[in-house]
Amino acid sequence: MESRIQYLLLALCLTAWMAPAAAATKPDQLELEPLVVREPERREVNINKLDSENFEIGIHAGMMSVEDFGTSFTQSLRVAYHVTEGFFIEGQYGRTTLGETSFERLSGGAQLLTDAQRKMRYYNVSVGYNLFPGESFIGKGWAFKGSLYLVGGVGSTDFAGGERFTINAGLGYRLIATDWLAFHVSVRDHMFDSDLLGSKSTYNNIEFTGGLSIFF
C-alpha cells in the first residue's frame, strides 16, 4: 500500500516538474508561417496621345443662289481657330460667277453687267459655336466625333464694280474622321443691300457647300 502511494506521489511530482519546462519551451518550438503578400497583376494600357491642334484649314465647294442672278457653282477657302471646345473664329474667302437676271433673260439680249462684273468675290470673318458636340455612328463598327454648329459674322461682297457690306449667318455640321481630317456640310445666307436693279433692296444669297479640312 505504501509503495503504491509512493509511486503515485512520485508520478505527480514528475508531472508538476515537467509541465513548466514544456510550457517554457513551447513558444520556441512554434514556427510561424511567413506572410505571403501577392502583388496585383498589372496590365499595360496604351493611352493615345491627344492632339492639341487648334487651327483648321479647308476647301469647300457647292452652289450659291444669288438673288435675281440664279444659282451658280461656288468655291471657298476657310481658315478657323478653335478658341475653346465650344467657340471658334473663322475666316472665309469665296468666289462665284453670276448668271443672267430675269430682266436680261426677258429683254432678249440686254446686258446689265459685263463678264468681268459677273465675277463675284466675297470674304468674311465669323464666330462659330458648337451646339451639340458628340459622336456620329456609321453602321455598327464606326463611331466618329462630330458637331452641329452655328456661325455668323460680317464681311464684304465684291461684284458689278463695287463692294457691299455683307452679313452672313448659317448652320453647319462637322464630322471629324481622324485627329487631323474633318468633313463639313453647311448652309449660309449672305445678306447685303444693293440698288443694282434700280431700287435699293436687301439681297439674300443662299450658299450650300460641302468640303474637307485639316487640323494643324
Concise overview:
Helices cover 16% and strands 53% of the residues. With 216 residues, the chain is α+β, with helices and mostly antiparallel strands.
Explain the overall architecture.
Helix content is 16%, strand content 53%. The protein has 216 residues and is an alpha+beta fold. It has one domain (55-215): Porin (Beta Barrel), CATH 2.40.160.20. The radius of gyration is 43 Å and the shape is rod-shaped.
**Content-based structural category:** alpha+beta
Percent of residues in helices comes to 10-25%
DSSP strand tally: 9
- Principal-axes geometry comes out as rod-shaped
Which fold does the CATH topology refer to? Porin
Topology pattern, helix = H, strand = E:
HEEEHEEEEEE
Low-confidence stretches: none
N- and C-termini, Cα separation: 113 Å
Q: What portion of residues belong to β-strands? A: over 45%
Strand order of the largest sheet: 1-2-3-4-6-7-8-9
Mean pLDDT: 82
CATH architecture: Beta Barrel
Number of helices: 2
The description of the largest β-sheet is: 8 strands, antiparallel, barrel
Give Rg in angstroms: 43 Å
Q: How many domains would you count in the coordinates?
A: 1
- Under CATH at level 1, the class stands as Mainly Beta
Secondary structure blueprint with pairings:
Blueprint: H1 2-29, E1 55-66, E2 70-82, E3 87-97, H2 102-107, E4 119-130, E5 134-138, E6 142-159, E7 162-176, E8 181-194, E9 201-215
Antiparallel strand pairs: 1-2, 1-9, 2-3, 3-4, 4-6, 5-6, 6-7, 7-8, 8-9
